[in-house]
From TrEMBL:
It comes from the Bacteria. This is 3'-5' exonuclease. Residues 3-172 form the Exonuclease domain. DNA polymerase III contains a core (composed of alpha, epsilon and theta chains) that associates with a tau subunit. This core dimerizes to form the POLIII' complex. PolIII' associates with the gamma complex (composed of gamma, delta, delta', psi and chi chains) and with the beta chain to form the complete DNA polymerase III complex. One of its GO terms (cellular component) is cytosol. DNA polymerase III is a complex, multichain enzyme responsible for most of the replicative synthesis in bacteria. The epsilon subunit contain the editing function and is a proofreading 3'-5' exonuclease. Keywords: Exonuclease, Hydrolase, Nuclease. One of its GO terms (molecular function) is 3'-5' exonuclease activity. Pfam families: RNase_T (PF00929). It comes from Ramlibacter cellulosilyticus. The keyword Nuclease applies.
DNA sequence: TGCCAGGCCCTCTTTAGGGCCTT
């Protein structure tokens, strides 16, 4: 089973293009459903945190003042996940901050990580869920609580548990032995009706005929 | 509590608009 990193950023706002910066990053390394590593750090990017964000995340300006420089934290985070594909909930958000923060380290910073998104996958796999917020999906699946919501490690832990559940459901529903990262990236762009065919195509060279997913029955 | 953005997805759609989701 290949290792993936489940990442979550806390930030000063929604858009690095508008000047927002990361304030905290957490990464949970998963090997299958097993947690094999954790990285978490506040970071000081030299920007003020609004009262709304202080209340939303619990991360205060005082906490940030005492944190290591953002560049140091991001360099360490990049080393931590070198060669490891990443997963996030609403990954387009975390991918933007990942790229923007690593861009500040210079052109040599490794930021070309393939991201998979647990929100897009959940929309495909769980049409009955209703809401696709991380906490809503955690409740929907009765995932174990992981601490204060909207802190990076707690959210990364919940997203990691959600990813494990997604992989488990793909494997059980489509009778495949694994749901590797490349398949997850493909499925998050695949319409729900086409999931069986996409999975079958992915595994067609590896699965014996008797284990091929039955795409005629749909999902 | 939510504005800023951006990508995805649904529908009263596709020559568009608005809601969801992330902080």
């Amino acid at each position: 089973m290949s290792v993936v990193g489940v990442i979550d950023f806390e930030t000063t706002g929604l858009s690095p293009a508008m000047g927002d910066r990361a304030t905290e990053v957490a990464i949970v390394l998963l090997d299958g459903a097993q947690v094999v590593g954790r990285f978490q750090s506040l970071m000081n990017a030299g920007v003020r945190i609004s009262p709304f964000i202080e209340q939303y995340t619990g991360i205060s300006n005082e906490m940030i003042r005492a944190a290591p420089p953002a560049e140091d934290v991001m360099a360490e985070a990049a080393r931590f996940v070198r060669g490891v594909p990443l997963v996030a909930h609403n990954a387009s958000f975390d991918q933007r901050f990942w790229s923007a923060e690593l861009d500040r380290l210079g052109p040599d910073a490794s930021r070309d990580h393939p991201f998979a998104c647990t929100m897009l996958l959940s929309r495909r796999l769980y049409p009955q869920a209703g809401s696709y917020r991380l906490q809503s999906l955690a409740s929907f699946h009765a995932l174990p609580p992981a601490g204060r919501a909207h802190r990076a490690m707690a959210d990364a832990e919940v997203a990691a548990a959600l990813l494990s559940r997604i992989r488990q459901d793909i494997q059980r529903e489509y009778e495949v032995d694994a749901a590797p990262h490349a398949l997850l990236v493909r499925l998050q762009r695949t319409q729900r009706k086409a999931l069986p065919k996409a999975i079958q195509a992915y595994f067609s060279s590896a699965l014996p005929a008797s284990r091929q997913p039955d795409h005629e029955n749909g999902a």
